[in-house]
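Q: what does this look like with protoporphyrin IX containing FE bound?
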Amino acid sequence: MNIFASLSSLSITLAATSATTNPFLWYVTRAAATSAYITLSVTVIIGLFRSLARVSRLRNSRALWLLDELHPYLAVLTLALVVFHLLSLVFDPLIPFSLLNLLLPFDQPYRPLAVDLGVLALYGLAVVWLSSWVKHRIAYASWRALHYTSFAAFVLVTLHGIFAGSDSGEPWMRVLYLGVSGVVTLLVLARIFWPEARQTNSSRVAPARRGR
Ligand code: HEM
């Protein structure tokens, strides 16, 4: 065998090895996932602020405009980042994820239970994205009920990230998970127990009670 044949077989071996061990796409997957988690969290937090602004009858039109603009914009950005997270998984030769693995919560090639939570979170987010898309064609009450799925999806994504992620042990990632979960919990409690919100809720059920 001459020297050119040996060199070409060596380069083929090196190319094949780097195709299966190059972690570039794995880094892309994780960067996209963490960015998606950040934009999703900010979207949820802004949505809760918007809801609080409504029940507290905030009149600052500039603040309301900003919240109304940012909320859908960040939701679409989250969708794009999730697509990026999933496509880089499928094209990454390190772990063989198929399209079916992304769509069905069975038989995952990596941390199965944690990844299944990601698939379920994706279903929840799909309900929120699709219902917002047809918001003006469905009844407001139906849209609102479907929009509440976002809370379940947020919890599922957080658990998915904590248990599937390679970065969960990093201090900055722990601060992110704990900080965001804490802020969302506080805002949900504020929204439920806000005095005017409670008044609105009780005045909503009052006619039904009177009718009984
Ligand atoms: C079909 C649905 C999904 C699948 C199959 C999936 C798969 C994965 C996998 C394999 C990992 C581990 C990557 C690593 O080693 O860090 C991961 C991590 C992660 N995923 Fe997903 N995921 C899905 C949906 C989602 C969604 C919808 C979000 C967010 C909106 C998300 C956010 C995250 C986060 C935050 C991490 C942790 C990243 C890190 O620690 O670096 N995933 N996902």
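The pocket of protoporphyrin IX containing FE is lined by residues 29-30, 33-34, 36-37, 40, 82, 85-86, 89, 101-102, 110, 115, 118-119, 121-122, 125, 157, 160-161, 164-168, 173 (CB under 6 Å). DSSP finds nine helices and no strands in the chain.
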